[in-house]
C-alpha cells in the first residue's frame, strides 16, 4: 500500500521559513565580512537546502566554535554548482545532491579523496523520491505506471544539470524493475516518462516552482522539497511509492579552503543533534537516526544506488551525455545533455 501525505504537517518548531520564491534562486547571499576578527566561510550547495542552512548557520553562530564565523552562501543546480567550484568558484564547504558531483572536485584536487570516510560515509542528509500531485490528486496518480499514461504531464529537471533529476529517474527505473519489468521494459519506461515531461528546468527547486506555477499534473521530487512546499502553504499532496530510492546528500570541506579548521568545525556541527533536527524540521531524513523530528514513512521496497552498481556504473550506463541510456533519450527529444 502506498504511503500518502496530505498538506497538514506538524508546525515547524521555528517560526520563520525562507520564502519559496527566494529559495528558488541559485544566487548568493553574504553573511558579513572578515572585520573584527571574524572568519568568513563560503558555503556552496545544491538548490534545496537553503532554508535549512539559514537556521543551521544561525545555530552554529551561537556556539563557541561558530561565534566569530560568518558565511557567504550560494545555491543552485547540483551539477552546475560542482562545475562552478571546479572552474574556480571559491568554496570552503560544499554540499551536493549526489556523490558524482563531489567526485568531480576530487578529480580536480579540490576535495580530498577520503571525504567519505567518516562514520556516515560523508553523507549529511537523506531523502527519498516522491510523486507530488495537485491538491486532491485529481488524476489519481499514485505510482510509477501512472506517470506514463497519455495526457499526464510530469515535471522533473534536466538530469544533465540537476542531481535531483538523476535521483528521480533512477527511482522511476528501479521502481519499474521492482514491479516486474525487464531491463528493456524499464529502459522503454524512461523514454515514455521523459516524453511526458513538457519542460526540464535546471534544478529541483526550479522544477518545484514550475509545478507550483501551474504546469504539470505530477512532480518528481525530493521528499524534503514536497514538505517544504506544504510548509509554505502550497496546495499539493505527495505519495511515497512503495518502491523508491534512498537519496544521499554528501558534504565536504575543500582542500583549497583558506580556513580549514573553521570549515571542519561547521561540517562537524552539521552532524550534531541541533543541526540534524533542523534538517529534519525542513523535511530531510537525518543521518543520525535519533534526531528526526518528523515521522517519516519507510517505503517497503526502498533501495539505494548500489542496486544498479553504484554511481560510477550509473553515470556511464545512464548519464553519459552521448551514449548513456538517458543521454540518447534526451537527444531524441532535443533536450541539452551538456553544459
Using brief descriptors, characterize the structure shown.
D-Maltodextrin-Binding Protein, domain 2, 34% helix, eleven-stranded mixed β-sheet, globular, alpha+beta, 339 residues
Written description of the protein model:
This protein is an alpha+beta fold. The protein folds into two domains: 17-125 and 248-291, Periplasmic binding protein-like II (D-Maltodextrin-Binding Protein, domain 2); 126-245 and 299-333, D-Maltodextrin-Binding Protein, domain 2 (3-Layer(aba) Sandwich). It is 34% helix and 17% strand. Helix 2 (50-60) links the parallel strand 3 and strand 4 (69-76). Mean pLDDT is 90; it is low at 1-36.
Beta fraction: 15-25%
Arithmetic mean of pLDDT:
90
How would you spell out the order of helices and strands? EHEEHEHEHEEHHHEHEEHHEHH
Structural class: alpha+beta
The CATH architecture of the largest domain can be named as 3-Layer(aba) Sandwich
Based on DSSP secondary structure assignment, what is the total number of beta strands? 11
Q: Give the overall form.
A: globular
Q: Give the N-terminus to C-terminus distance in angstroms.
A: 40 Å
How many whole angstroms does the radius of gyration measure? 19 Å
Unreliable stretches (pLDDT < 50, length at least 5) are 1-36
The count of domains is: 2
- Count every helix, treating DSSP H or I runs of 4 or more residues as helices: 12
Percent of residues in helices comes to 25-40%
User: How would a textbook summarize the main sheet?
Assistant: 11 strands, mixed
CATH names the topology of the largest domain as D-Maltodextrin-Binding Protein, domain 2
CATH fourth-tier homologous superfamily of the largest domain: Periplasmic binding protein-like II
Question: What is the top-level CATH class of the largest domain?
Answer: Alpha Beta
Amino acid at each position: 500500500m502506498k504511503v500518502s501525505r496530505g498538506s497538514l504537517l506538524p508546525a515547524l518548531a521555528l517560526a520563520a521559513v525562507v520564502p519559496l520564491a527566494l529559495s528558488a534562486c541559485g544566487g548568493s547571499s553574504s553573511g558579513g565580512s572578515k572585520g573584527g576578527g571574524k572568519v568568513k566561510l563560503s558555503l556552496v550547495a545544491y538548490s534545496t537546502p537553503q532554508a535549512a542552512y539559514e537556521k543551521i548557520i544561525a545555530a552554529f553562530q551561537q556556539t563557541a566554535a561558530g561565534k566569530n564565523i560568518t558565511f557567504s552562501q550560494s545555491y543552485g543546480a547540483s551539477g552546475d554548482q560542482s562545475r562552478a567550484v571546479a572552474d574556480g568558484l571559491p568554496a570552503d564547504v560544499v554540499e551536493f545532491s549526489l556523490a558524482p558531483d563531489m567526485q568531480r572536485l576530487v578529480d580536480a584536487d579540490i576535495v580530498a579523496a577520503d571525504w567519505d570516510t567518516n562514520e556516515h560515509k560523508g553523507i549529511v542528509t537523506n531523502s527519498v523520491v516522491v510523486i507530488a500531485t495537485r491538491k486532491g490528486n485529481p488524476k489519481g496518480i499514485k505510482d510509477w505506471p501512472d506517470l506514463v499514461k497519455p495526457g499526464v504531464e510530469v515535471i522533473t529537471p534536466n538530469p544533465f544539470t540537476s542531481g535531483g533529476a538523476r535521483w528521480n529517474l533512477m527511482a522511476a527505473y528501479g521502481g519499474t524493475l521492482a514491479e516486474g519489468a525487464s531491463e528493456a521494459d524499464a529502459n522503454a519506461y524512461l523514454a515514455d516518462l521523459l516524453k511526458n515531461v513538457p519542460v526540464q528546468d535546471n534544478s529541483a527547486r526550479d522544477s518545484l516552482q514550475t509545478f507550483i506555477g501551474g504546469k504539470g499534473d505530477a512532480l518528481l521530487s525530493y521528499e524534503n522539497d514536497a514538505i517544504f512546499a506544504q510548509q509554505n502553504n502550497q496546495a499539493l499532496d505527495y505519495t511515497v511509492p512503495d518502491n523508491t530510492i534512498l537519496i544521499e546528500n554528501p558534504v565536504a570541506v575543500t582542500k583549497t579552503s583558506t580556513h580549514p579548521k573553521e570549515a571542519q568545525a561547521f561540517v562537524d556541527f552539521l552532524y550534531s543533534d541541533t543541526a540534524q533536527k533542523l534538517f529534519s524540521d525542513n523535511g530531510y531524513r537525518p543521518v543520525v537516526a535519533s534526531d528526526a523530528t518528523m515521522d517519516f514513512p519507510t517505503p517497503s521496497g526502498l533501495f539505494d544506488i548500489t542496486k544498479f552498481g553504484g554511481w560510477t556504473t550509473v553515470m556511464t550506463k545512464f548519464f553519459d551525455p552521448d551514449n548513456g541510456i538517458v543521454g540518447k533519450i534526451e537527444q531524441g527529444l532535443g533536450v541539452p545533455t551538456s553544459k
